[in-house]
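Model it.
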Amino acid sequence: MSTILMTCGETSGEENASYLVREILKAAPGCRVMAIGGKRLAQAGAELLFPMEKYAFMGFSEIVGGLPSIMALEKGLKRHLGGGSIDLFIPVDYPGMNMRLAAYARGKGVPVLYFIGPQVWAWGGWRMKKLKKAVDLMAVILPFEEKLYEDAGIPVIFTGHPALDYIDPPPGPKTLPEPGGERRILLFPGSRRQEVRSLLPRMLRAAALIHERMPGARFRLVLAPMIGDEEAHLERDPHGIVTVTRDVTDELARAALVIAASGTATLQAALSGTPAVVVYRTSALTFFLGKKLVRIPHISMPNVLAGAKLLPELLQNETTPENIAEAACGMLADSEAYEKLSGELLELRRVLYKSGGMKELAGVALEMCSHSGRA
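Modeled.
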């Protein structure tokens, strides 16, 4: 019986990895998948070793504060990787810790399949040399990454994006409701507590401002699995226009607009054909260092994939409630521009599609297990 160790550090990576775990266990029911993760991986059939929510840090300064817990986690994971019981290591995104663990695993003779590689195209090209030494195979979910890794001499496979499996497209581009009709707006403040603390108060105030201009607006606050209901702070919603949900798929199907922290939620919105206002706010140190490293003109994945600024992006001090409300109301005021944008967003589904990608990757993973030192 093969044993796989998988490490996820945040909600989006875990969501995508859960589809891979399901395909692995479908193909090999006797396989054991141990993981650092959360509820989604457990539901997919993985055995959780450590809870992911303790180790999800957002930026440079935040990671420094979390170093003691990260170091303790790494020590525990290295014991598993060096103990002779692991046939395959699958790190998922979360590059800092995962790259160190990948190098350690390979040094111990454990094959490494890196799923959702670091975004070296955005800010970390210098990591390519380290990745070449640390991984046996990269599995990427963005099509343009395949050539980047090939050019660096790193074996790579493009899987298609797993979000296509659970975000259904509308029959055609979305259209706005009639003037005065209900407009459902989703608020995604992020999956990390630092993001939620920073962005949610601004989003709630923006919701009130939007409601003043559009009385038919109703808001659904989408909380990530590791964010508790008590962190919703709906006492800041005296008009009672915001309700809480955790059901992304159904909500996107009915939404007219999304206001979201830069991350997976913006891509999920795009794949459902839903226009979005993208916001990003982090510590001053993280933002300063990021500006020195980032080499691309856009931060949201829909804009990166389109090579154009389809969605408005509000960064740092731009993330005021007034700016968020102005951007949202502007997008909901022009029916023709709205429908055109929805169609352009839906085009990204074609860019990210690959038939049977997760099933193929599961087969590759099991083949790598069979060639491990324990086989």
